[in-house]
Amino acid sequence: MTPFSRLLRASTAMALVSPLLAASPALAQSTTAQSTTAAAPAVPTYSMGAVTATADRTEKAAIDTAAPVSVRTNEELERFMPSSVSDMLSGIPGVTAYQTAGQPGTKINIRGLQDFGRVNVMVDGARQNFQRSSHGQNTVVFIDPDLIGQVDVVRGPSAVVYGSGAIGGVVNFQTKDAKDLLRKGQTFGGQVTAVYGDNAAERRGSVSGYAVADWVDVVASVSASDRGNFKGGDGVKVNASGWESESGLAKMTLTPNDAHQLRVSAMRSSFDYTAGSGATADKLETDTDTFTLRHRFTPESTRLIDLTTNLTYTDTDQNETRTGSTSNGRKTHVQVTTPGIDLFNTSRFETGSVGHALTIGGDAFHDEVTATRGTGALEFTPGGERTIAGAYIQDEIALNERLSLIGAVRFDTYEMESGSQTVEDTAVSPKLTLGYVVTPGVQVYGSWAQAFRAPSITETLINGTHPAPAPFRFVPNPGLRPETAENMEIGTNVKFDNIALANDRLQWKTSVYRSEVDDYISEYFNMVFGAGGAPNFSASTYGYRNEAEVTLHGVESELVYDAGFAYAGLTLTSARGKNTQTGKKLTSGLGERASLTLGARDRSNGIDGGWKMDGRLGLQDVHDSADGAQASGYLLHGLYVSYTPPQLDDRLTLRASVDNLFDTEYRDRLQTDSLEQGRTVKVGGTVRF
């Protein structure tokens, strides 16, 4: 049964479930306040106006956060009909997302740092720690964009409240709630969404049912996609560049009173795809299950208690079958399970005229890795276990109406085991941020932070021999030291209303940073040559070691202007990095990037459309491909439009977009010979009932 056959059956079931939700007395109740909450805002919410708690655990708009944080809202995600995680993160300053052709998993890079937990990727706070080392890949995440309602990104080691490892930053994907789906005045309903893309004959669809009551919020969604091989800008199809996926989400939030809120969610995503071709072809199936149980306790009787407990569990299971002529039928299995707990309390109080938001918390997670090929161990990825736990204290201090201070310190400990080898260590990570409101609407801040990343199981304990015909040895390094990062940052937050027109607004975030990573861990390959210059693989070694220091520096800027009938968004990134010992430049995610969106809307007629430009220059990951071309600069153009007929009361939305409008030939991924996707026309629609 194809994914779309299953989706059709799910659509029928969802259509039957919705009337049952309506018939339930508990779910059918509503209040005027709830109807108002569910209504769409008069002015759409854009990135910097959206509320986030990812940077420092206390909820505030991104534009009011003294940290380099960006948010993508449900409205923005739907506008461009994203097919992948890369699409969802497109245009966010400082962020690069890579996907090899045919690989639905995505590698996320922030400020030149990636892999092995340097970027803490989460779904509803649940860590996505799947890691499999191979040619050209290490850490990738598998997430279905149809189930995501908001994406929060914090750049740099500024979020000490989010645990060990995040020296590059934090990305938190938040699954959809009923509030993301309800129409104005609804207490229950459903929707069906379908998208078709011509380049890869992509077909995607999702079905959702949802309901709210006085104290219950329920949403259930299923989605499926099927895409073939895409064409590059030269019109040539890229082999093994398609995949199929199926996903489901069930989520319920209970708020029996003002003091308690309990949220439970379960999400499963399955991806089927092929890697390679001919004698080295592999068929892969990757399943990711994510479960969360979150309780928040906020008694009205005191401001000293705002207690959140989040229990999480992620299980990513990848099965690979060799389908080519070499080792035909050979099985490879990689499974990473990560249970975790996150507990923190924020106390709000005053000492004289000084206000405090004091957060004390702790978290822990445990990675268990199983990796086999055939009847033995997987050469690139060793199995093992790793436990990391930490505790922190942070105080957000409002010294007066203009001056604020955030001070925090975190203590971490870790231990890993593989076979008879055990490695453990501890670290302390401080943070200090000072913010000052120069004039109403303009804030400047300076931040200094340290962060710590424990070595991964692979980096520390890799062991074995590479398969023939290149049988070099993998060498473990149990003496590998953890990475420590120190980051200095200066930023500004600017927001003004009624600038040139009534009810228009301007929001602008900019930051300048410099990071130094001591004991940076990198891979090495010591190739030994024998007589006549022939490689002596048996004497050659591969492993990981500490570099002396890596420095990274850059500028990031994000601007939004909205005049109601028209809007614009601009993001700019300039980033550089190098090994200070060797002078060698880093080769991932750096260079200059720009993203510009110009749009117009006619609310009375339900029309919204515009143009988007994405460009990149000065790539630090330039490399020669098989045809001699290089991954250098490029400029891409796209168009989008949506139509929501007002006479149908928001029951129907039709969308269309064109990506890579001029069929530009370009490369963005590392170590690949294939072009990126050429011109793609997408059409889609959402029916709400």
Automatic annotation (TrEMBL):
Short motif (TonB C-terminal box): ranges: 672-689
Membrane topology: Multi-pass membrane protein
PANTHER family referenced in this protein's UniProt entry, alphabetically: HEME_HEMOPEXIN UTILIZATION PROTEIN C, TONB-DEPENDENT OUTER MEMBRANE RECEPTOR
Organism encoding this protein: Novispirillum itersonii (Aquaspirillum itersonii)
Record flagged with keyword Cell wall biogenesis/degradation: no
Predominant cellular place of this UniProt entry's protein: membrane
Boundaries of every TonB-dependent receptor plug domain copy: 63-170
Database matches in Gene3D superfamilies: TonB-dependent receptor, beta-barrel domain (2.40.170.20), TonB-dependent receptor, plug domain (2.170.130.10)
Annotated protein name in UniProt: Hemoglobin/transferrin/lactoferrin receptor protein
Stated family: Belongs to the TonB-dependent receptor family.
Domain TonB-dependent receptor-like beta-barrel per the UniProt entry, residue ranges: 260-661
InterPro entries per UniProt: Beta-barrel_TonB, Beta-barrel_TonB_sf, Plug_dom, Plug_dom_sf, TonB-dep_rcpt-like, TonB_haem/Hb_rcpt, TonB_Hb/transfer/lactofer_rcpt, TonB_rcpt_CS
BP GO annotations: siderophore transmembrane transport
GO MF annotation terms: heme transmembrane transporter activity; siderophore uptake transmembrane transporter activity
Alphabetically ordered keywords of this record: Cell outer membrane, Membrane, Receptor, Signal, TonB box, Transmembrane, Transmembrane beta strand, Transport
GO CC field: cell outer membrane
